[in-house]
Design a protein that fits this description.
alpha+beta; Arc Repressor Mutant, subunit A; BirA Bifunctional Protein, domain 2; SH3 type barrels; 3 domains; 7-stranded mixed sheet; 5-stranded antiparallel sheet; 14 strands; about 25% strand; elongated; binds biotin
Length: about 325
């Protein structure tokens, strides 16, 4: 069920001019006083709403407000983001999503926070998660697939994020191209823009739930010195800030569409072309670091199971599974 606030935001956004109080009351089925109260709340949350007598209400500025109603009012999906849990501050959206899963939350639940105190990266690393500038979100799913196939969903998410970001760049006539560093870093200008961490609870042949956590540097102003050559943000590349709620909604839409393609074959065969088109590794020399094994080779693309194909010096092809593995460019981060 859509909340009244979500409906008001949708109506205000779709209206070019003013929307009269009367119209709002009729469309929402609430009283004038209720409308006035909602407008007051929205203003307090940072929305710039102009109220003019005999004309009504107009949304004059859409600030980068992140909240449940803001996200819901932009979502156009059927199941991805069906429930949205928003917190100003949390430990980690992955931890929260797992907790909600244990309590029975539905597949498609999306957890979003404005700040994380214990943001988790891959391989036990910390994901710095300052307030007010980035996207920290986790999608909870209960997919009917074998646990061995779960890592492919990380690739589906990576592709979806890359496509949503590329759309923003294209709409601004920016010529830069988003790429994916297998398995799950989205890069821009050869620097990391997005990290993805997938965790799951499974039996040997059955996934109880899976959480796909996405961290995106959106409006990050400055990075610590040690990260300056390795990380970037959308704001740093575009020169202006980007609306985080809209970005989240676009990613959910892409993910839902891509997941429908994945679901048909339960592998990446229907998405390989799109993935290869944005792959940063293809035909690049890479170093593969697997637990207890380290080697170099040339990345030749991925197969339909999402494994990276690495050609070694003796021309043998290694199929690298996207588990606890790290792949680095030989000469740079990518
Ligand atoms: C990586 O190491 O590249 C993965 C980073 C994943 C970070 C995101 S932010 C939202 C979600 N919550 C977490 O604690 N981690 C993921």
């Amino acid at each position: 069920m859509e909340s009244t606030k979500t409906k008001i935001l949708k109506l205000l956004r779709s209206e070019k001019g003013y929307l009269s109080g009367q119209e709002l009351c009729e469309k929402l089925g609430v009283s004038r006083t209720a409308v006035w109260k909602y407008m007051k709340q929205l203003k307090e949350e940072g929305y710039q709403i102009q109220a003019v007598q005999n004309k009504g209400y107009c949304l004059v500025d859409v600030p980068d407000v992140l909240g449940e109603s803001e996200i819901k009012s932009r979502l156009t999906t059927k199941w991805a983001g069906k429930e949205v849990y928003f917190q100003e501050e949390t430990d980690s959206t992955n931890t929260q999503a797992k907790k909600l899963a244990e309590e029975g939350a539905v597949s498609g639940t999306l957890v979003v926070a404005d700040c994380q105190k214990k943001g988790k990266g891959r391989r036990g690393r910390v994901w710095e998660s300052p307030k007010g500038s980035s996207v920290y979100m986790t999608l909870l799913m209960r997919p009917d697939i074998l646990p061995q196939r779960a890592s492919m969903l990380t690739l589906v998410m990576g592709l979806s994020v890359a496509q949503a970001v590329q759309k923003i760049l294209d709409s601004e006539k920016c010529t830069q191209k988003v790429q994916i560093k297998w398995p799950n870093d989205v890069v821009l200008n050869r620097k990391k823009l997005v990290g993805i961490l997938t965790e799951m609870s499974a039996q040997i042949d059955y996934i109880e739930y899976l959480v796909i956590g996405v961290g995106i540097n959106v409006n990050t102003g400055e990075f610590p010195e040690e990260l300056q050559d390795k990380a970037t943000s959308l704001q740093a590349e575009l020169g202006h800030s980007v609306n985080r709620a809209e970005l989240i909604a676009q990613i959910m839409k892409r993910f839902e569409d891509n997941y429908a393609i994945f679901e048909k074959t339960q592998d990446l065969s229907g998405l390989l072309e799109e993935y290869e088109a944005v792959s940063a590794n293809c035909q690049q020399p890479v170093k593969v670091l697997e637990p207890g094994k380290e080697y170099t080779g040339i990345a030749r693309g991925i197969n339909k199971m999402g494994e990276l194909l690495v050609e070694r010096e003796d021309h043998r092809i290694e199929q690298v599974y996207a588990g606890e593995v790290s792949v680095r460019g030989l000469y740079s981060y990518v």
